[in-house]
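User: For my dataset I need records formatted as: sequence, then structure tokens, nothing else. Please produce one.
Assistant:
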Amino acid sequence: MGGLPEPVGGGKAQARRRRRGGQAAAAPHRRGGAAGPAAETGADPEAEEAGERRQDRGGARPGGQQHAAAAAPAAGASAAAAGGTGTATGADPALSLPASGLVAPSLRRRLASLFYEAFLAFGLAMVTAFVFSVVTQMRHALYGRQALGAVITVVLGLYFTWSWVKGRTLPMQTWRMRIVDRHGQALTPARAALRYVLCSIWVLPPVAAFAQQHLVDWKPVTAAFFGWVLVWAWLSRLHPQRQFWHDAWAGTRLVDAA
């Protein structure tokens, strides 16, 4: 029973399978050198290429972070240099107050506080006149008029000076205002007294206008007084910080209360 010849058809089928296997093994080598080992080990070439791309991206990120970290100190240094330049060329820190600390409250609020202040001052003057008349045994309204006027002026001066040194009067507290000097500090007694003297500009012009007249009707005096108060208050709009001019001369400021 020597060897039987293989069937012709079976030999051709085996030859075709060998050629297909050789072509499949040679295809990855034609695509690239990196895919060849993957094909030999049975791995998917596309999955390997995707993994390499992810690794490339992951390796690029630390470099970007290093660039950002290196840029941050440079930006901080430039900001510090700019800050130092601004401090060096800026104004005196003692005068570097916020704008809200220099600009006066609205004119409407200041006028409302002023009229409220006038009512309190009138009441205080009436109490002072009563005490003065009892102490001096005043029998006539014209007796001791100059002395009474001087006492009322002193009493009002003490009241306003004491209140301004504390920072505010009752009307100013009601309308959320306070009085400070040009540096934002509390007033000294001397500066508060100076402001009291300069505040006489509210009443002196109309009083001086009618001082030499024998008045029977007080309506013109009242109209002149209120008209002058409104004019003097409106002139504060010409001040850079909208302060009253007597405050500018006294070195004081009306500001919003904290």
